[in-house]
């Protein structure tokens, strides 16, 4: 029903969106909850749709990380998420965020040295000390930034051979992290990542993610559902959203298989999928973690083209 409704109104949305993005001052482009448009439409469906946050590791690659806070704000975003701000002090990041006047929703855990292939330590046996240091450091940044979500990355496994030792390290490290996160009222999220994007990454499977989340059974540990990864791991998007909805703590989107803007030619119809998320009751932030085809700001036109602002 929602989709039919959107289709009927699509020309209205396209007009509205082009006005929004072409004008020098963007008033309400990326927040459904208080958008004037949804008030005009008077539909509960649109009023309660989730909000988009800019992933600063992917968007605005033209500029250094700290400058991207302001670029995101100027493009109309109210919030951002980012990978761990490598190489910047907490004070520098907080200053950039505050100067831009934007909210930080999520940061990734400190991953270790990515140039050596390190992508977190949670599932790496023998690296428990590194894991503990990384979660401490990340909580410290998250608190300073006001971020209420941390993506706990698992790390790579030699030649992709996952053993019981990896599973055990993962569960124990997550339990340790959750103990800290519960005290700080921060949500930890774990994310299955497809093998084409990151070969040999430990957390590459929804059943495995769900099983450890259920085992640990804490409101402070949930799933990060990146629809791009979902499509490349197993497809079956609508059923998976319905199955996993109560465990979803954060959502990210990009077109598949090339990880560009959601409206690019590709395998996923985001107008439909975002409707499915909304119908399932997802009401939280959606991270835009895609590689802009060219200029990031021009690329944001997809939001209007999908008929959702
Ligand atoms: C990984 O598994 C393959 C196939 O079973 C095996 O040949 C290889 O030696 C294993 N590698 C490691 C590091 O255990
Ligand atoms: C699709 O997802 C549903 C819900 O998770 C599951 O029951 C079904 O088995 C899946 N289909 C396939 C082909 O994996
Ligand atoms: C939006 O949805 C959430 C949960 O689905 C609900 O708790 C909340 O009251 C809704 N807000 C509005 C404005 O309808």
Automatic annotation (TrEMBL):
Organism the protein comes from: Exocentrus adspersus
Coiled-coil zones: none
Matches recorded under SUPFAM superfamilies: Xylose isomerase-like
Catalyses which reaction(s): 3-hydroxypyruvate = 2-hydroxy-3-oxopropanoate
GO biological process: glyoxylate metabolic process
Family designation: Belongs to the hyi family.
Keywords: Isomerase, Signal
Domain called Xylose isomerase-like TIM barrel: residue spans: 70-304
Pfam families assigned: AP_endonuc_2 (PF01261)
The keyword Ribonucleoprotein is assigned to this record: no
UniProt-recorded name of the protein: Putative hydroxypyruvate isomerase
GO molecular function, one term: hydroxypyruvate isomerase activity
Highest taxon of the lineage: Eukaryota
Active-site residues per Swiss-Prot or TrEMBL entry: 191, 289
This enzyme's EC code(s): 5.3.1.22
Keyword Metal-binding included in the entry's annotation: no
Signal sequence, renumbered to the chain: 1-16
Biological role: Catalyzes the reversible isomerization between hydroxypyruvate and 2-hydroxy-3-oxopropanoate (also termed tartronate semialdehyde).
EC top class named in words: isomerase
InterPro entries in alphabetical order: HyI-like (IPR026040), Sugar_Epim/Isomerase (IPR050417), Xyl_isomerase-like_sf (IPR036237), Xyl_isomerase-like_TIM-brl (IPR013022)
């Amino acid at each position: 029903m929602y989709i039919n409704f959107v289709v009927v109104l699509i020309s209205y949305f396209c007009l509205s969106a082009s006005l929004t993005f072409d004008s020098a001052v963007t008033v309400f482009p990326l927040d459904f909850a208080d958008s004037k448009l949804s008030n005009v439409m008077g539909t509960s469906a649109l009023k309660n749709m989730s909000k988009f946050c800019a992933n600063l590791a992917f968007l605005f690659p033209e500029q250094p990380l700290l400058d991207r806070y302001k670029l995101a704000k100027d493009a109309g975003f109210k919030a951002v998420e980012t990978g761990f701000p490598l190489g910047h002090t907490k004070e520098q990041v907080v200053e950039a965020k505050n100067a831009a006047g934007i909210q930080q929703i999520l940061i990734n855990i400190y991953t270790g040295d990515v140039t050596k292939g390190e992508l977190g330590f949670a599932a790496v046996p023998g690296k428990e000390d590194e894991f503990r240091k990384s979660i401490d450091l990340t909580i410290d940044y998250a608190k300073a930034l006001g971020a209420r979500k941390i993506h706990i990355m698992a790390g790579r496994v030699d030649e992709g051979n996952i053993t019981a030792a990896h599973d055990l390290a993962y569960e124990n490290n997550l339990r340790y992290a959750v103990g800290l996160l519960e005290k700080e009222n921060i949500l930890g999220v774990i994310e299955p990542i497809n093998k084409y994007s990151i070969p040999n990454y430990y957390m590459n499977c929804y059943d495995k993610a769900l099983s450890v989340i259920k085992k640990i059974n804490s409101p402070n540990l949930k799933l990060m559902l990146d629809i791009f990864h979902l499509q490349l791991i197993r497809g079956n998007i609508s059923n998976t959203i319905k199955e996993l909805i109560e465990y979803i703590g954060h959502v990210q989107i990009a077109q598949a298989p090339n990880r560009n803007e959601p409206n690019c030619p590709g395998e996923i119809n985001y107008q439909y999928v975002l409707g499915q998320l909304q119908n399932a009751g997802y009401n939280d932030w959606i991270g835009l973690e895609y590689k802009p085809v060219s200029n990031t700001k021009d690329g944001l036109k997809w939001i209007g083209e999908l008929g959702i602002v």
